[in-house]
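ok, trying the design again with the full structure, not the truncated one.
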């Protein structure tokens, strides 16, 4: 292992949706990692619905639109364009740096987003979302179907009127785990990276009993403590918290001691 290849010998499974996983694989490979792309989550478009169209039509009335993921940015902005240009009076907020960056890349200069942690609790701690700032305000949350309710519940407790714009759905891919399990049996897999609790649950289900036997000797890499505390995380021998992006993941994985 050298400064140029800090991940030499480290085998890591990337479980993000395929396009995102493949984009992340390249910098990790340049850092010396052996990367296994095994999506444990896929994103699908939702068919048009009256509920979504109504939420989009009322977007000009909203003082704030919150995007829960980069997928929500991609799908939500595409849907919003059907109703015209983005309302100038509607500010945007993001959960996590990847989501915030997706908004910046889409032309939004001012994005409300937490800087330290990348979860809904961190966003809710921002001054812009405190009761005196959101009471009586209309807020739209762009998300996938059936997401967590915590964000809406807290904002409504603070006096806001919250509606969802559900613009995609998350599904479990039908992937063959055998090539990954074979690599694991050869000692080539040392860590698994996941971004959400749902992805973690999917991954554990997809690898089956044979794969789960390998987890105690492997590390789990997650973006924040909420996922680290998940019941399925206890199957792993070690849990690491990684900062945003390839650089954060590289730094976390470089802590692993892998025999040459």
């Amino acid at each position: 292992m050298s400064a140029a290849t800090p991940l030499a010998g480290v085998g890591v499974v990337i479980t993000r949706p395929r396009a995102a996983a493949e984009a992340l694989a390249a910098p990790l490979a340049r850092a010396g990692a052996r990367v296994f792309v095994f999506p444990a989550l896929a994103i699908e478009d939702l068919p048009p619905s009256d509920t979504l169209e109504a939420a989009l039509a009322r977007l000009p009335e909203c003082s704030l639109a919150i995007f829960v993921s980069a997928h929500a940015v991609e799908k939500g902005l595409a849907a919003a364009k059907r109703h015209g240009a983005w309302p100038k009076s509607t500010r945007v907020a993001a959960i996590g740096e990847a989501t915030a960056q997706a908004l910046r890349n889409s032309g939004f200069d001012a994005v409300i987003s937490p800087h330290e942690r990348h979860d809904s609790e961190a966003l809710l701690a921002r001054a812009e979302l405190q009761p005196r700032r959101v009471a009586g305000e209309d807020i739209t949350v762009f998300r996938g179907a059936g997401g967590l309710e915590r964000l809406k519940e807290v904002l409504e407790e603070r006096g806001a009127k919250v509606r969802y714009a559900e613009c995609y759905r998350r599904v479990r891919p039908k992937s063959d785990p055998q090539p990954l399990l074979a690599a694991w049996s050869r000692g080539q897999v040392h860590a698994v990276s996941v971004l959400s609790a749902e992805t973690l649950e999917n991954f554990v289900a997809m690898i089956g009993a044979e794969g789960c036997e390998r987890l105690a000797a492997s590390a789990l890499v997650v973006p924040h403590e909420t996922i680290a505390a998940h019941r399925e995380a206890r199957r792993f021998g070690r849990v690491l918290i990684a900062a945003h992006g390839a650089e954060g993941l590289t730094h976390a994985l470089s802590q692993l001691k892998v025999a040459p």
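Keeping the full-length input from now on. Residues 59 and 140 are 7 Å apart (CA to CA).
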